[in-house]
Amino acid sequence: MQAGSLRLRSAAQWWLAALVLAAILFVPLPDTFPALLQHSVAGLVLFVIGLLTFFFSRSPFNTFKAVLVEFSVALPQRLPRLWQTYFLVRRRALLAAMLPAAMAFAGRLLGLEQTPVLLLVLTSLLLLWLYRTPRQLW
What we know:
mainly alpha, elongated
C-alpha cells in the first residue's frame, strides 16, 4: 500500500470519530422532554456507567499494541496484509473508545449536566489519542 493512501485511510477514521464527538457536544436538544427524562438521578447513573465503559477499551488497546509490535518484525511482503489488520483493529478500538462519549450523549438526554458530559467526552478523547498511528510506521 502507498503511504498516501494509508494516511488518507487513517485520516478518515479520525474525522469520523471527530464528527461523532461534535454531534454529541453541539447538537441542540429539544426543550421539551417527558417528565421521566428530566430526573438527574438517571443522568448520574449513566455518568457512572460511562466511566465504567472506559475499561472496555482495555482489550482493544492490548490488541492494538500487539499489531504495532508486529510491524517491527514484519517481512516486507507481509506489510500490506498487516496494514489491513492494523486498520481493522484500530477501527474496533476507536469504536470502543467512543463508548464514554455515547454514554455522555445518553446522559445528556436524561438531564445530565454539562460538566459530567464534558468529562466523559474528554475520556473518549484521551482514549482516541492512544490510538494514533506512531510516526515510525509512516
